[in-house]
């Protein structure tokens, strides 16, 4: 089960999205440790959602209400991050070191990952496919630990790669990467906003 959990964690974390871009940005800005802490926030949220799916907490989504509000909050925060990235002045490579606030790196991706509650439904579907039930507590916990380890494995690899890249690129290229990242974060935010806003518009026209 541990190996299956690691594979699931990799499958959830590996697709390039806003969290991956933030990890890359953090690594380029503050180095390897910065990227690892950023990835740790996402891995923690993934593990919490996996734990929730194992305990059958998908029904909480109906208690909490529409997930659209969480998606909108997450998208607006992504827009803010994109704007800050676009305006950020790139420091010389010699100035790249440990981040001033590791907690901010951690909680940024932790909260952004939690703002996508569809993740718990993905885990619930995967767990059902593996034939797990709430009674399989031991196997389920092994799977959750595996999800965390698999997710962290991906962030370690990603941070290592871009920590090396940062040392080989001159500041002009890093500024271009900042611009591309800001644009991609903007488009991710717009795509996340599109579905809930369309749903609200449909409700308003009824």
UniProtKB/TrEMBL annotation:
<dbReference type="GO" id="GO:0015171">
    <property type="term" value="F:amino acid transmembrane transporter activity"/>
</dbReference>
<dbReference type="InterPro" id="IPR001123">
    <property type="entry name" value="LeuE-type"/>
</dbReference>
<keyword id="KW-1133">Transmembrane helix</keyword>
<feature type="transmembrane region" description="Helical">
    <location>
        <begin position="177"/>
        <end position="197"/>
    </location>
</feature>
<dbReference type="GO" id="GO:0005886">
    <property type="term" value="C:plasma membrane"/>
</dbReference>
<keyword id="KW-0812">Transmembrane</keyword>
<feature type="transmembrane region" description="Helical">
    <location>
        <begin position="140"/>
        <end position="165"/>
    </location>
</feature>
<dbReference type="Pfam" id="PF01810">
    <property type="entry name" value="LysE"/>
</dbReference>
<feature type="transmembrane region" description="Helical">
    <location>
        <begin position="36"/>
        <end position="57"/>
    </location>
</feature>
<feature type="transmembrane region" description="Helical">
    <location>
        <begin position="63"/>
        <end position="83"/>
    </location>
</feature>
<keyword id="KW-1003">Cell membrane</keyword>
<feature type="transmembrane region" description="Helical">
    <location>
        <begin position="103"/>
        <end position="128"/>
    </location>
</feature>
<protein>
    <submittedName>
        <fullName>Threonine/homoserine/homoserine lactone efflux protein</fullName>
    </submittedName>
</protein>
<feature type="transmembrane region" description="Helical">
    <location>
        <begin position="6"/>
        <end position="24"/>
    </location>
</feature>
<keyword id="KW-0472">Membrane</keyword>
